[in-house]
Each structure stands twice: as structure tokens, then as C-alpha cells.
Design a protein that fits this description.
216 residues; mainly alpha; 7 helices
Amino acid sequence: MADPWAFGWTQLLTIAGLLITISIAVSGFRTFGRWKREKVEELRIETAIEALAVAYESKFVFQHIRGALVEGHEWSGMERRPGHNDTQHNSLGSFYAVLERIKSNRDFFEHLWKMQPKCMAIFGPQIEDTFMLVHKSRRHVEVACQMLSSRINDGDAITDETRKLYDQLRRDMSDHGDFEPEKDRVGKMLQAFIVQMEASCRPIIDKTFKPNPAFS
């Protein structure tokens, strides 16, 4: 006569094994989900730190680019334009020097462009407007140099509106410090870039790394 418990024990052991397998699988999925969330959070923190560092770096980069003091060696490689005398040639030196400073910071601007899509993926597409502030700042400086260097033959035959335009272009090209800062549109955009980047990145960083009260 067959053992009436034989099938029952086998079935019970099978069910128990299945439950253990399901339990391990569920635990594994939970562990994977937790690991995935941790990796995403790590990426958010790393990106926030890098983006904020780039924002702070922009201040020093543009201070160098827009520095009012231009030394002779900075435009010693400038080619003389046809028909220009020494006075005309030398008057273009500051514009050439500023454009060369922008070129010397090429790595910074390339890094900025690479950071932009990464930050858009992490913080949302709206942060593109924040990055555009620094891109526009660089472009304003470049356009100012190009336009001012082309007015060498204007002489005094310019209107009041044109003179106002040239005054604005000179402010775009060079940092006038604390003198009428309300007229410095490039300076305002760069400051807005830092402020907006802080608003996006600082909460993420401070949530992970509590600020040291000794430096607050």
C-alpha cells in the first residue's frame, strides 16, 4: 500500500522551495531597485557639484577675459591691417587681446557645452536657459570686440545713438568694476548664471553634505 503522506510531503517541499525562490527574487529586485536609486542619486550629487564648480569658475574666467588692463605681449601677434598706420594698429590691440583671452579659455567653454545636456537630463530642460546666460555673455564680449574694432575709421562722424551703442559695447568688452554696475549687462547675466545654478545645485549638495557652520 502506498504511503498516503508521500505525495503530500513532496508537494509541500516543492511549494516551500518555490516560496523561497520567490522570496529571494523579490529581495533581489528590491536590492537592485535600491542600488539603482543610489546610483542615480550619486550621479545627481556629482553633477550638482561639477555644475556649481563650473558656475563659480565662470566668475574668474570672465574676470580674466574682461580685465581692463591689456599688456603689449597679448596683442603682439596681431597682423597689421592694410593701410593702417602705427596709431591705428595699436588702437586695435585691446580688442585683439580680449578675443585671444576667449580663445585661451576654450577648454572652459567646451566643458560648459558638455555639461549642459547632462544637467538638462538631471535637473530638467529648463536649466538650458541658465546655461544660455553664460553663452550669451561670451557672445556679447565677442561681438563688442568685433564691432568696436571695425569703427576705427568712423572718426567723429557718429550720431548720439551710435555713441551710446559704442559705450555699451565697451562695457560689454571690459569689466568696469563698481563703476555704474547697473549698466553692465554682461556682469548681470554672469551673476544670474551663478545664482540660478546655486538654486538648482545647492539643495542637492547640502542635503548630502551639511554645510560647516564655521564658514556660514
